Hints:
Layout: E1 5-11, E2 19-26, E3 33-36, H1 37-43, E4 49-54, E5 60-72, E6 75-84, E7 91-92, H2 94-100, E8 102-105, E9 110-113
Parallel strand pairs: 2-7, 3-6
Antiparallel strand pairs: 1-2, 1-5, 4-5, 5-6, 8-9
Amino acid sequence: MGLFNVKVKLTSLAAPQRDEEVSLVVDTGATLSWIPREILERLGVATYSRLPFTLADGRELERDTTAVLMTIDGRKAAVPVAFGEPGEEAVLGATARESLGLVVDPVGEKLVPRNLLALRNRSA
Length: 124
């Protein structure tokens, strides 16, 4: 699958007047989105956890994580993100895509909206 970029608006959950528009590489192998630390610091978001990650080449590392309001094509959701360090790619991960109800169209190199999935409603 080819790589492609999407425009994303990130907003601080604690200070909604702080936002940034960024371009992220759609990465179907990444769990969380990786956002450059300097962008998250400008938004004023706080680290709430440090989690382990395994890279595609098998190396392991830890990164700080937080949450931001992410907007893509008018769809908004609060999503967890990792603090990317200098030299690391800024990527859109699976958790954000799932939360926003977006699937990857690898041929068209775009994100396609879909309904979120839910359990069957027993009262229906």
